[in-house]
């Protein structure tokens, strides 16, 4: 909120260390879980639900269909699986199984905190449980988590990234800009992320990037991004495309922003064609 932003921005300049501490605490909390939107409720009700333990944390999972071709959906930050309702409906066929999950602290999964490692662990767990995975379709933060999970061992034939971010820097930089943090507070917040959020990771900024192994030239990637996305800069799609050594098809839309792109009929059809194609 504007008042909170002004207060935090002022604090970060008067007392950078305290501003960094407050900023870090706000950044790490997902906030209140989103409810299922009315437009998504019918598809949401169709799903077979199952609670799965992933590394000691319970997540709610969803399954539509029972076909041999398995499609995994990965939602973004402070979101939920039901956001993909339009795509789930479009993908329904006898040979397809669509699976999805609510990440910890999102949707119907319990918790207050979540990190990219939790997302990656969920992707790996569902791959082992339902795999082999044919395609992963991800949105926003889920795109970054998907690339990390695949680079670190999850096998997939193709990837769809919608409104995706290319690296963890983008996520942190966007938050700091919105919060109005000063330069010293930003540096302090990044150190807190390194030491407290990811103490076991040597360099999170180089590990958490939307890149696959350079030898993964067999993995086709579809990238969809909107020019009016105010949450993730469209330039992130270019960075993802440039980093991938395999085939990349990019679709640029306009006027859909960060969220409406998920339910836009033209985008849904573009994704559906890519997913069902024989490659």
Write the layout of secondary structure elements.
Layout: H1 2-14, H2 16-28, H3 41-46, E1 48-54, E2 57-64, E3 69-74, H4 85-91, E4 96-102, H5 116-130, E5 133-139, H6 141-151, E6 156-162, H7 168-179, H8 183-197, H9 204-207, E7 221-226, H10 235-243, E8 248-253, H11 265-276
Helix pairs in contact: 1-2, 2-8, 4-11, 5-6
Brief account:
This protein is α/β, with parallel strands linked by helices.
Structural class: alpha/beta
The shape, in one word, is globular
What is the percentage of strand-forming residues? 15-25%
Instruction: State the distance separating the first and last CA atoms.
Output: 46 Å
- The tally of structural domains comes to 2
State the helicity in percent bands: 40-55%
CATH fold node name of the largest domain: Rossmann fold
Q: What is the H level of CATH, i.e. the homologous superfamily of the largest domain?
A: Alpha/Beta hydrolase fold, catalytic domain
Secondary structure tally: strands:
8
Largest sheet descriptor: 8 strands, mixed
Helices, by number, come to 11
């Amino acid at each position: 909120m504007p008042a909170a932003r002004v207060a935090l921005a002022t604090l970060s300049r008067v007392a950078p260390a305290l501003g960094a501490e407050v900023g870090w605490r706000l950044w790490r909390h997902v906030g209140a879980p989103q409810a299922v939107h009315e437009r998504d409720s019918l598809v949401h009700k169709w799903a077979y639900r199952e609670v799965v333990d992933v590394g000691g944390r319970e997540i709610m999972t969803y399954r539509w269909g029972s076909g041999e071709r398995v499609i995994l959906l990965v939602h973004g930050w402070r979101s939920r699986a039901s956001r993909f309702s339009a795509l789930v409906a479009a993908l329904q066929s006898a040979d397809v199984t669509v699976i999805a999950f609510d990440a910890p602290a999102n949707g119907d999964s319990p918790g207050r905190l979540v990190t990219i490692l939790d997302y990656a662990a969920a992707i790996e767990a569902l791959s082992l449980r339902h795999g082999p995975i044919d395609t992963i379709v991800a949105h926003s933060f889920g795109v970054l988590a998907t690339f990390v999970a695949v680079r670190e061992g999850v096998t997939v034939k193709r990837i769809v990234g919608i409104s995706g971010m290319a690296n963890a820097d983008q996520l942190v930089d966007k938050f700091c800009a919105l919060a109005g943090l000063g330069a010293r507070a930003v540096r302090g917040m990044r150190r807190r992320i390194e030491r407290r959020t990811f103490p076991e990771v040597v360099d999170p900024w180089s590990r958490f990037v939307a890149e696959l192994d350079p030898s993964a030239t067999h993995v086709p990637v579809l990238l969809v991004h909107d020019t009016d996305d105010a949450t993730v800069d469209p330039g992130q799609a270019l960075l993802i495309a440039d980093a991938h050594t395999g085939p990349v098809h990019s679709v640029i839309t306009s006027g859909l922003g960060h969220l409406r792109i998920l339910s836009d009929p033209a985008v849904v059809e573009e994704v559906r064609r890519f997913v069902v194609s024989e490659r």
